[in-house]
Amino acid sequence: MSNRFGPKGWTPERLGTLKGKTYVITGANSGAGFQATRLFLSRGARVIMMNRSARKSAIAIETLKKEFGASAEVSSVAMDLAVLASVREAATKLLDTVQQIDALICNAAIAQVASQQLTVDGFESQLGVNHFGHFLLCGQLFDRIESSAGRIVVVGSNGYKMGDNRIRFEDLNYDKNYSAWNAYAQSKLAQMVFAYELQRRVLAAGKSVNVLVCHPGASRTSLIRDTAGLATRVLATLLSPLAQSAERGSWPEVMCATEEGLEPEKYYGPTKFEMVGPVGECPLKAFTLEQEQASRLWAISEEKTNLSWSP
Questions:
Q1: Helix, strand, or coil here: 48?
Q2: How many Å apart are CA 207 and CA 209, to the nearest integer?
Q3: Which residues are catalytic?
Q4: CA dist 203 to 75, 111, 152, Å?
Q5: Which residues pair with 103 in a beta bridge?
Q6: pLDDT at position 6, please?
Q7: Is the pLDDT assigned to residue 222 strictly greater than 70?
């Protein structure tokens, strides 16, 4: 698969000025989300971080203002994706203060939760945070994004290929045979299936929202360190030298938020073994685009989040 951006792939050198642009990023106080924020600010954009921890957000903002100056337009809205009421409250607050959203980047995630945990709304924690929380947030912010002719960027993961390769509708919470890997894989597959279905619905409705899907590859972030069991953490530590920096891990989401001419039903990220290397288009498994699965997931997502949403 040739890279449309050439042998070096997409790099931030392609970014022009982003002055006047507003980007909203979930999970932006560390890792790839923080590095994406840095890139946006370096080009003059405004960034609103939606993070669970107000304390960590304050530290991140202080760090960014030291780097880019006191006038850097970076702020945060507290939001816990594991709590639907928190997502609703945060979305309302954001809409009260932000009149333009050029891109919503669904970057936050939890991974490899060692034993089954349920959110307050009764969802398996990874599915609840990674998919249902973001589904509700996208639905709440969609009209503002559309009025801005903006984008929704869903950050997937190559983990989507490592589980059952389908949404387990008969046992969404993995009450039977819970596996940290399989539950995580389902949560990322759900995010991607949702994104491609949203693409189709937006195109059918003639709406001016661009929906794109990317992945960070193998990046050195705290994602697994925070939630995984001991064996997975040890493996991640051993493989860490092979991974790329969190900054490079942020390039696919920044590209999807800014680059013109990207296409639907594509999957963008590092192209060398889909883990590191030049950023461009990656292969996509056909089961992510199955229409029946997508329609069923959309209906269940509306039901579970109590959101009636027709883009």
A1: strand
A2: 6
A3: 184
A4: 32, 31, 13
A5: 23, 151
A6: 79
A7: no
